[in-house]
Amino acid sequence: MLTELRTIKAQLARNSTTSSQPPSQDKPWQPKSERQKTGRSSGAQPDHPGKTLKMSAHPDVIVDLPVTGHCTCGQAWDDVPVDTQVARQVHDLPDLHLQVTEYRADVKICPGCRSRQRAPFPTHVTAQVQYGPRVHALTVYLNVAHFVPLERTSEILHAVCGARPSDGTIALNLNLAAERLQDFEGRLRTALTHQPVLHADETGSPVNGKLHWMHVVSCAQLTFYGQHARRGLAALEHMKVLPKYTGILVHDAWSSYFKLPAQHALCGAHLLRELRGLAEHHGQVWAGALRESLRTVYHDLNAGTLSPEARTAFERRFDELLEEGLLANPAAPPVPGRRGPTKQSHGRNLALRCQQHRAAVLLFLHDCRVPFDNNQAERDVRAWCVKRKVSGGFRSEEGGCNFARIRSYISTLQKQGLSVWEGLVSVFTGDVLMPNFNP
């Protein structure tokens, strides 16, 4: 009874700092942070350069303000030459409205054979009345880059420039953009397989009321999103990146990743949260000690003060504490009449996982390319969580896949400092701006 009561209390006390539970499910109060205190106040520091609006060297409009009237001595200012000028600038948007371009194709009739010939319209002019590439790009930019729903996207365009595209028009823009980005996605897949270190994560992404999954594979300069009905290996194979990747893959120990040929590195931040949960809610002393040792060695490594002797001592201590964890969490005996493996305690499972994947947990100590955590993938996943909060999901699988491809393009451009706006406009003008696939 005491064990069951402790388990129930631990479940009620779970939050994003003691488990893999997302921060959106935390209670209203601020969870504890893993960051060490620096003693500095929050906000900009004294040596921060700061930013302010700068004067433009090439203003678009210049308004001269003459001195008029008379001086106190009676001299008329109109008769006095200008000595110098003091300039002030106002940076503002111009009056926005749609610019309508009418194409008039000449039609001629041959006087001899009476054959009728019309001048060709530009390739992007396909209808009698249509929106141009910048309007199409703006609808995609608002919907995919900033998660604005279709109806509100239409309202924004109507308020700003007088255009009111329908939901169907915006959906067609998303379909067209996804179609024209197929070559980008293929080249992105290939580029990711050549990266030395990749990060992977996944999150729920409802489609028509059913739970689907959004998977991300990324690095500092490239992002690939994939929508799939499954969370496991079938989804990873469908994305066509990780099944042939042999570099280092950083993840959170989801079992499907271990079926891939990559060299594995496990997220230390997830491990710290689980150890904190065991120490605070289950009274597992070994977990608290391992957490503090892990935090100390990470910060020493980050500061460049970790000696080879200290690294060796930590690894020895790591193994000792895991043995203590197994002793504190003995194996549960088989349940008579029940098939399959017996369910073990969370503490025992965690200790066994760390033993089994010891090299992956400690790889950050031996390879400077490997980060301690999986923050890269978690930052990339965050955008999808915002989309889910705003819209709740997608109406169709095709819509989710289109959104994933366009979002991959936007995220990659952002990481490389390229203009997302110019990129989206280029998609609709037919000459897609490609990022650097060998960063």
TrEMBL record:
Transposase IS66 central domain sequence ranges: 129-400
Residue spans of biased composition, Polar residues class: 13-24
UniProt superkingdom: Bacteria
Pfam families: DDE_Tnp_IS66 (PF03050), DUF6444 (PF20042)
Ranges where the DUF6444 domain occurs: 4-52
Chain intervals for the UniProt region annotation (Disordered): 1-54
InterPro entries per record: DUF6444, Transposase-related, Transposase_IS66_central
NCBIfam families: transpos_IS66
Record's protein name: Transposase IS66
